[in-house]
Amino acid sequence: MAPPVVLVIAGSDSSGGAGLEADQKVLAAHGCYAMTATTALTAQNTLGVDDVHVTPPAFVAKQIDACLSDISCDAVKLAHVSCQVMVSTSGAQLLPGDAVRNLREKLLPIATLLTPNIPEATLLLRDADIQYKSPSGLEDLKVLAKMVHALGPEAVLLKGGHMPLTKDYMKATTDDEKTRTVDILYDGKDYTLIESSYLTSKNTHGTGCSLASAIAANLALQKQTNTPTSLPTATRLAVRYVSRGIQTSHPNLGKGSGPINHFHNVQVLPFTSGHFIEYLLSHPSVVGVWAKYTHHPFATAMARGTLPEGLFKNYLIQDYLYLTHFARTNALAAYKSRTMPAITASANIILHIEREMALHLGYCAEFGISKADIERPDRKESLACVAYSRYVLDVGQSEDWLALQMALAPCLLGYGEAARRLYKDAESKTTEQGNKYWRWVENYVADDYTQAVGVGRDLIESHIAKQSPSRIEELIAIFVRATEMEVRFWDFDAHPDE
């Protein structure tokens, strides 16, 4: 399904905090596709507008026609060159009188929603020669919204940011009295009051643009999903979005009124979907320990045939005991799986572990170690084996399926990577060259193991892209800890003689 489409007709802000640039950020943050018709170019920053280059109206019309003749839209957001309709945050009037009149007489009657701030609302009423009472509290603001609604739009959202209120909803006269702001939505029948805590922040550049675009985005989303149109819901969500954007704004963008944080509600994955493992193995917290693991001198000594036989025998015994727990853990992963491919993947890994254990027994027999000797009742697991196997099982019991996969991943991925490196190493010795450990390398470059690794990688890739960035960091930490356990398992003093 294509994303909701919003056409924005507005001016450009060279500093990126307001205008079309802000509109597009807001729409992207809401999952909408933005089309634009540029009414003007501005030279501006957080300190103010230096100059404006107005687009000829006929060319604006061509932009609109070009967009709508090819791509239909779900909502249209219209703004003046400086984003706020007529009066800036500082109180400066941005439109000449005849433009205000044209706006009031031609645009307001066809507008679904008008979003004036308080100075803009009063300017519209003055232009229409309508007497109004200067607001002194919430009730006066409601009256003001109703009077502006009478000028023609289907609904009015009177933004209350210019008049902070006291806890009793009266106009605050001192900073200490400023406790809240109230935005008032009036549709000709009902009032919707959206109350927010008063925020002390200089970073409010482009809030008018951002709020209107967020409302347009929410209405477009409602339309696309066939949700009954609810202007109060769309507006409330937009107000919360902008408020949080102010709260999380970056303090050092610009010397004046800085932009809000348009992407506070967006979680950005630090990797391209389908390439998490690549990202994982290049992660700063992984690189060092992964190199220690996959280039461990124990495995290198096996591949070159120089490992002392006693160390290899102790390793075989402990690895056999560990593989029993590894199989148990994969069985737990199968239990925690919710799809047949995931269950099948765990089952295939267990079958490979079974074949790997048979290889171990074959090795052990060659070195005079029987299965009965390995499994005798008084056989003790080394502390390294206990620590690693119980850590993985604990993750399996206390965490979700994906965390368990991350705890298992170092064993699954690392043996294959180490074996591939050693298989190509010019200093490695094969069985024909007298290396009695070479079959260990061959086991982990074999097709069945490579296929099992591929299935495991694909499952992790398919699930990791659904996680939040913070959860991904937690999962990477599990991977790092399990990798540290792998390093210790290969250390020469990890499995001493009993």
Automatic annotation (TrEMBL):
GO terms for molecular function: kinase activity. Residues 13-78, 85-261 form the Pyridoxamine kinase/Phosphomethylpyrimidine kinase domain. Signal peptide: none annotated. Keywords: Kinase, Transferase. Residues 283-491 form the Thiaminase-2/PQQC domain. The keyword Zinc-finger does not apply. InterPro entries: Haem_Oase-like_multi-hlx (IPR016084), HMP/HMP-P_kinase_dom (IPR004399), PM/HMP-P_kinase-1 (IPR013749), Ribokinase-like (IPR029056), Thiaminase-2/PQQC (IPR004305), Thiaminase_II (IPR027574). NCBIfam families: salvage_TenA (TIGR04306). This is Trifunctional hydroxymethylpyrimidine kinase/phosphomethylpyrimidine kinase/thiaminase. It comes from Exophiala sideris. The gene is THI20.
